[in-house]
# Entry
Amino acid sequence: MTFHSPQFFILFPCVLFLYFGSPVPFRNFILLAASAWFYMAWRPEYILLILFSVTIDYFVAIGLSRTTGVWRRPLLGLSLASNLGLLFFYKYFGFFAEALRATGLPVRLPAWEFLLPVGISFYTFQALSYTIDVYRGSFPAEKNYFRLMLYVLFFPQLVAGPIERSSNMLPQYRELHEFDYERAASGLRLALWGLVKKVAIADRLAVLADAIYSSPREHAGPVLLAGTLAFAFQIYADFSAYSDIAIGVARVLGFRLRTNFDRPYFAASPIEFWRRWHISLSTWFRDYVYIPLGGNRRGEGRWAFAAFTTFLLSGLWHGAAWTFVAWGAYHGLLVLLTRAAGMLTPRRPPRWLAASLTFLLILLSWILFRAKSAGDAAYILTRIPGGPGSWNCLLDRQLDWFLAGLGIVAVLIADLRGPIWEQRWPLPLRWAGYVAGVLLVLNGLGTADTPFIYFQF
# Structure
């Protein structure tokens, strides 16, 4: 289910016991040690990258807090260069080297290849938000090095978000968190729902989406559409599941993480979709890219440039491939066209119609996101409306498709009303939901080991 899942399930109860059973001064140390062990269980040496990043940012922020002169921009530049430099080196170096070779220019970069550090895109952005906020004067520099390290390394949201802000998390590391039954129960319920979404829904949909997207040229028409639908709900169930688990686990420990999803497939426009999908990343790009580029303060032309550039960079953030760049550009164009349509036709269609059209447009974007190459994406986009094709791939997996359909319905109902155990139903029925959820998770853990999609970013 996760990278080193057994370590997580061993780690959490141990941390819970030690955290609430220790004197306050030692609690952050316990969290820091547990977070470091959690990350090092994957590849120990890569924690040095986080140590390097945090150390640079710690001294940069201290320097920014002590000077108002010409050194402020160079100091911020050092933080940007160190964080983005690591991200570029490990994630994008090969991509740009290949793109440079394709131009035919007599410039060659070495063909270095490295294993991508898990979560580097997430913790890099989280670290950057801290130094930028200190530079802007919106948050004071953290004087405690280990507290800043914990801010970046906090294990529930380390590898796939939500991307937190220093203004939310750093003050919480100074608070006294006593064990609270209601808060812990709420967190465990949310984490259980995340596990159910991941193991019983997303992983089942993954099998169906992979079967079609692994060889798309063998299919056409409704089969390609079915595979795309499977992936659309797989990625939502998968990514929102991790966010639910992270938020739930942190809540048990007494910490408040940001909401990362808010019923995105019920959005009535592409602009609204991005206010509901991966909210922590959307607001990061809004605050640190879109607004500095001018936002909507300097006329329509500057707004269009800022919005399109932001989405282009967002696409590149997701992966070092032209399909991700195209995915970002597609969403940028959708936002531009949505705004233009709103200016030309101020009368809005019924919400159900707008939401249906928005979902269709988002569905098409997932083809770019999931396809292994631009050629495969072009094939799928042109063949979905091209003919009926063969239904054998669907008929051979009738039970899988039926169960996947039930999972999709469960996700949509839960988005509207919440899982069964969040309802005001009789206690025996809610406990039946708990038991069913645990059994679904245990059954799935024994049959599948599909990593979270966003671990690759």
Observations:
- The chain has a mean pLDDT of 84.
- Residues 181-213 form the longest helix (33 residues).
